[in-house]
Amino acid sequence: MALASTEKVVLGCIAFGIFWVLAVFPSVPFMPVGRTAGSLLGAMLMVLFRVMSPEDAYKAIDLPILGLLFGTMVVSIFLERADMFKYLGSALAWRSRGSKDLLFRVCLVSAVASALFTNDTCCVVLTEFILKLARQNNLPPQPFLLALASSSNIGSAATPIGNPQNLVIAVQSGITFGQFLVGVFPAMIVGVITNTCILLCYFWKYLSVPEKDQERGGGGGAGGPEVVADDEVTSHRFTPARMSHASSVNGGGDDCVSEPMRRSDSLNRAETLSSMRSRSYNSEGDIQVAIRSMRASSMSQEMVEVSTVCDGGGGGGVGVGVGPRKITRTTSHQRSVIIEDAPEADAARDGGEKGKDGEEVKEKRWKVLVWKSAVYLTTLGMLVALLMGLNMSWSAITAALVLLALDFTDAQACLEKVSYSLLIFFCGMFITVAGFNRTGIPNALWEMVEPHSRIDSAKGTALLAVVILVLSNVASNVPTVLLLGSRVAVSAAAISPASEKKAWLILAWVSTVAGNLTLLGSAANLIVCEQARRAQFFGYNLTFWSHLRFGVPSTIIVTAIGLLIVTSY
Q1: Residue in 310, 339, 343, 301 with CA at minimum distance from that of residue 324
Q2: In which residue ranges is the amino acid composition biased (Basic and acidic residues) (predicted)?
Q3: Arithmetic mean of pLDDT, 11-23
Q4: Is the dihedral angle over the CA atoms 200, 203, 205, 206 positive or is it negative?
Q5: Any alpha helices (H) in 255-342, and if so which ranges?
Q6: Deepest of 59, 244, 262, 527, by most Cβ within 10 A of its Cβ?
Q7: Tens digits of per-residue pLDDT, 364-379?
Q8: What is the secondary structure of 432-498 as a DSSP string?
Q9: What percent of the chain has pLDDT over 70?
Q10: Across the chain, which distance is largest between two alpha carbons, in Å?
């Protein structure tokens, strides 16, 4: 393809340059509008500058990719509600045998979770878990944060649903989920192990904390870090799509429901309910007794807020309430807490009613268990469908719709948690990249490199990997895949049909692992950095240079080892 007219080339480069600046530096001082607005601005300029027509702009939007991305977001939201990420956090802390064992677990869990739930989601939900565990064991946070970010990127390379660029590659190449997994999974396993070894070598001295200091949990000396309770380490969850605090089925919250009464942090940490229906309290003394009994109960998982109103003119004691309060709760699915006035006749409870309450507790727990099982089975069914080679977009959308139907509540609140800004960003990016392709510049540059970067030789494969590595850090990995994907595939198809599939897998592996090179290389890195910086009580600033010192050797070594495995497929 020859270069377009000079006017189109100049205007197309301006539009793409604006998109690139705002995508890589979303808070640039002269226009801090963010990535989403930046992609829309680039797309609009491509049309206004007549680089492409409005009809061509609409055609450039890849609906199958958007559908697959939407479906996986909804499934991730339901998995978060079903405590999947809480269990992942528990797996990190369960019977840990020291700092090096914990580092290995972080690498393994984050890699596997990223392959199934996307790397960005994994980083959102696990960053504070890891900060708290490091603080609890008197360990430096840096190696564990680097382990989370780097292993999440490496692990996400194994499946088409692991990251956005893999979604693009899977849809454009037609490679099935199973073929993708078989081609990249071995490289991912070896890459994670290699990355873990590099982390251990790099931070061996910092991880060699005396065992007695770890057992003290960092709180041995005066002025030392405060010990973190185990339940704090394993109960903090985030909504994957929005990076906001959320609760699960077990815990009440604003998760797909409206909750009139929000629990305070102190009650949220300490109180658990052993009787879930109605209960009356005549004074604050009674309430304190009830709270102590709630804390002693190890079987309950439901949380409640106790509200009292004291009257100075009442009777004696610590404090007399105006009247008894009745605490009722809707079904576990809705998790709404309602506190209302109760008649005086409800103040006394007989044994029969208590027995009835116990039966209702068991019934509600059973419903929660059935609902969680349905979420896990639906997700498993989606993965099976993907492995069978069914259409990936419709498999993910079907799983999302099944979960919304099984929830038996208005789907609006759940759908509001989907990151529509990311979907809009992709729409704008598709149009902007398509317009830049029409200028002819990408083709002209590729024609200069293509004769030397064919994958039928080791030198050509190495040069192609360097081009992908550099471009992924300069222009970001998804635009790199959109710019290079079809060109690399055509070049490889001229060698053999098998080489075409191999070229797509090489592109997937290198563009994903390239995110570990610098802190700006992938969204997962930025999420870990920002979540760690903003973490309350456990904040840590992961700097650009501290990441770069580890990222450069790790990326080069892991990319090279993985290339040897992928090219031998």
Answers
A1: 343
A2: 346-358
A3: 90
A4: negative
A5: 265-270, 284-296
A6: 527
A7: 888 888 999 999 999 9
A8: HHHHHHHTTHHHHHHHHHGGG--TTSHHHHHHHHHHHHHHHHHH-HHHHHHHHHHHHHHHHHTT-HH
A9: 73
A10: 93
pTM value? 0.69
**Is the separation of the CB atoms in 333 and 364 below 8 Å?**
no
Q: Which two tokens stand for residue 341?
A: 């006035």
pLDDT value at 179 more than 80: yes
pLDDT of res. 209: 59
Separation of CA 100 from chain center: 24
Phi and psi, residue 283, nearest 5°? -160, 170
Sequence-separated contacts (24+) of 206-214 with Cβ below 8 Å: 206/139, 206/140, 206/142, 206/143, 207/99, 207/100, 207/103, 207/139, 207/140, 207/143, 208/99, 209/99, 209/137, 209/138, 209/139, 211/98, 213/138, 214/98, 214/99, 214/137, 214/138, 214/139
Looking at residue 342, its amino acid is A
pLDDT interval class at 127 (50, 70, 90): confident
Residue 29, SS3 per DSSP: coil
The CA-atom distances, in angstroms, between 113 and each of 107, 159, 207, 517, 558 are 10, 11, 24, 21, 19
- Alpha carbon distance 42, 14 (integer Å): 9
pLDDT in tens, 327-351: 444 443 343 333 344 444 454 555 5
The H or E element that residue 429 is part of is helix 420-438
Task: Report which secondary-structure segment, H or E, holds 300.
Answer: none
Polymer length in residues for the chain: 569
Q: Please check whether residue 360 is in contact with residue 276, taking contact to mean a CB–CB distance below 8 angstroms.
A: yes
pLDDT of residue 210: 54
